Amino acid sequence: MKKILITSVLYTAVTAILLGLGYPLLIFGLDHILFPHQADGSLISRNGQIIGSRLIGQPFTGDAYFHSRPSAAGNGYDPTASGGSNLGPTSAALISRINSSVAAEQIGKAPVPVDLVTASGSGLDPDISPAAAYYQAPRVAHARHLPVSVVNHLIEDHITERLFGLLGEPRVNVLELNLALNALSPQ
Amino acid sequence: MSLNGWLQITLFITLILFLAKPMGLYMARVFEGRRTWLDPVLVPCERLLYRLTGVDPGEEMRWTQYCVAMLVFTAATLVLTYIIQRIQYYLPLNPQHLPGVAPALALNTAVSFSTNTNWQSYTPESTMSYLTQMLGLATHNFWSAATGIALAIAFIRGIARREMKTLGNFWVDLTRATLWILLPISIVLALVYTSQGVIDNLKPYTTATLVQPMTVTSTGADGKTSTTTVTTQTIAQGPTASQESIKELGTNGGGFFNANSAHPFENPTPLTNFLEMLSIFLIPAGLVVTLGKMVGSPKHGWAVLACMTILWFVGTCTCYWAESQPNPLYHNVDQNNSYILQSGGNMEGKEVRFGIADSALFATVTTDTSTGAVNSMHDSYMPLGGLVPLTNILLGEVIFGGVGSGLYGMIVFIIIAVFIAGLMVGRTPEYLGKKIEAFDVKMAMLFLLIFPLIILGLSAVSILMPTLGLNSLANHGPHGLSEMLYTFASAAGNNGSAFAGINANTTWYNYAIAVAMFFGRFMMIVPMLAIAGNLAGKKITPENAGTFPVTTPTFTVLLLSVIIIVGALTFFPALSLGPILEHLLLHAGHTF
Q1: Distance in angstroms (rounded) separating the CA atoms of residues A120 and B213
Q2: Is B267 in contact with B277 (CB distance < 8 Å)?
């Protein structure tokens, strides 16, 4: 019994150093040689200032920007408190939140694409569906005094297709789309 | 539902069945001590490790010795993680200066990670320092997974050996599982993940200036509302990639971030998502082939794998179908599927890049096994969509199952199945030449009964104590019951996923869940090892005309029936008051 105890403590100590320091630091080192940009969070800079990560969504309001999805992370898109709403399908709180999102997003009588009024799992979803992007195009075009066709063309350029035509779903990165919009027609 | 979704699901299972054989044969080589191509690098490491820790690799252990070594080792790792969490403020690699973790939470987390559960009552990015994540938590992803594999191998030896008293050496099995299997695959996967965007750094959190400042309206304690303008976003960082790869490969599932594999820094693209799902099933599927190889009946392995695949398929179809349905309570919302424009369906709690198919498949895969990583929030699933992950856990996570734990759980069901077959024809049941006698069946039943006792017992206590149990629920009505049932099922099954609305970071839940996780792991391992030790001592009876073959479709169907009947008899009443009732009320237009 004493031998098992000693072996257990020694084994824990040695493998803790191997697996808890050696392994992660090896990966850390290799990643910084091979993929430094991704390892640091795929950050986007403008004029020497970090303005976000292409993988982390940001909140947008008003008519002149494409809106991201509702977010349950902190006060909205807070990467120190990622997470979903965790409201179930029969939750009264969920239904009333959906109804107010619909009221805010709906244009005319056309139903709103579902991803634009539902909160993502991470609360940081950087994407919206192409349906949700095209849906907002007339509003954005009007606010920016651009023809709708130009805005639609911009969306088309920013659609990420399925990998190999198979994996995942087509999507539009909202931050990149809005940055492209700003470049096209400065606020 | 879409053709594209079905193609992804088909590709996934095809690859798993294709990889199971090479993986399983490789693992058989590793544990039989035969040569592998990694030997030139790893054998010296292995010898050094034994010399440093005083292990005699030639020593053979009886089931009791094997069990004690496993328990004492787990206790040592548990204590280490508890201490690191408590004193993390004074340790390096804590750029956010996070304080030490509170005792109840630290205990819950230490038990959680050492039992391969990885239940998380906390938000990692605001609770755990980088050092705690690496040294306290990522290490357990290896240790608990390697322990699971070692136990499964010991059980297989119990079946394969004849008239022997020993099951192998725990330290050798643990070391070979870590060095030959978990570590090499984790290194490769971690690098692929970072190429796709999974972060890996030790920097303080990054402050980014928002493109458009955000106005936040908050109501103060005095009832007055105030608005503040937020101009920056604090982006949490950390050594994520190295933990992400072992998180799925070892069927652990504890997220580096609160949102787990839904977080874009843990799972940025459909490719990482697909690889994460593959790595969850890789070892469990391989181990079934290892079983067939080591007991000398490869066809038996495939008969068991067939049973697992059928159960996986039924779960995936149900979940995918349920989540593709529109929520009848939404109005003026377009929930239809369109191939090029949107996935439609129930998108609450799901990411756009994964849509419905990849989310439903991930939810099924993570609960078929004891992983518990999530790429969408199960709490927000449709009633019948959420029923699938819950049922998968309640069936004992034997559908492929956790690394090791899935296989030994499945062998217990096999013992019950051959016992029932024996009763039907009036002969002493046999399993691969070993007579199954009263002791084995008693231990198997103990294994099967402890599980519902923990889940239903603790759920019942939580419901009866409103201040302790009910106050933590985020949803009301039948969904609240599902939330609670899921919590204890996940804990006892060492899964770790959650209907995450529940606030489990209370004293009652932290301790109750810790108890469920502890007994759910070790109270089931002890009877399992007792069976293994008992079987190892038996003679092999030659097969004859009256032997019930365990390699045929008849066997697969019988095994399937036993799993479903045991699960249904135990849990159907609870499920009918939770998800099933909620489904009926949803379509009757009720909200809570």
Answers
A1: 21
A2: no
The first and second tokens of residue B313, run together, are 């398929």
In angstroms, the CA B447 to CA B493 distance is 12
Minimal CA–CA distance to B5: which of B262, B370, B324, B341? B324
Residues of A in contact with B226 (CB under 8 A): none
Which tokens go with B325?
A: 């349905």
- Interchain contact, A84 vs B349, CB within 8 Å: yes
- Segments of B382-429 assigned E as strands: none
Q: Which of residues 94-133 of A touch B (CB under 8 A)?
A: 94-95, 98-99, 102, 106, 110-115, 117-132
Radius of gyration of chain B (CA): 24
Please give the structure tokens belonging to residue B173: 């099995």
Cα end-to-end distance, chain B, whole Å: 28
| ipTM of the modeled complex | 0.96
Question: How many C-beta atoms surround the C-beta of residue B165 within 10 A?
Answer: 12
Taking only the tens place, the pLDDT of each residue in B38-96 is 999 999 999 999 999 999 999 999 999 999 999 999 999 999 999 999 999 999 999 99
* Own/partner pairs, B120-124, CB within 8 angstroms, 24+ separation: B120/B254, B120/B255, B120/B258, B120/B496, B121/B504, B121/B505, B121/B509, B121/B510, B121/B513, B122/B505, B123/A81, B123/A82, B123/A83, B123/B258, B124/B255, B124/B256, B124/B257, B124/B258
Query: Does A154 touch chain B if contact means CB atoms closer than 8 Å?
Result: no
Which residue from A minimizes the CA distance to B344?
A: A114
- Pair of tokens at residue A164: 């190999």
Inter-chain residue contact A170 with B340, CB threshold 8 Å = yes
CB contact under 8 A, B341 and A170: yes
Q: pLDDT digit string (tens) for A100-121?
A: 999 999 999 999 999 999 999 9
Distances (CA, A) of B205 to B125, B129, B188, B239: 10, 12, 26, 12
Q: Which pairs count as long-range contacts for A30-36, CB under 8 Å and 24+ apart, including other chains?
A: A30/B191, A31/B190, A31/B191, A31/B194, A31/B200, A31/B241, A32/B200, A32/B201, A34/B191, A34/B194, A34/B195, A35/B191, A35/B194, A35/B195
A61 burial class (0-12, 13-18, 19+ CB within 10 angstroms)? Answer: middle
- Using an 8 Å Cβ cutoff, are B233 and A73 in contact? no
Residue type, B363: A
Q: What is the DSSP track for B293-360?
A: HHTT-HHHHHHHHHHHHHHHHHHHHHHHHHHHSPPTT--SEE---BTTTB--S--TT--TTTHHHHHH
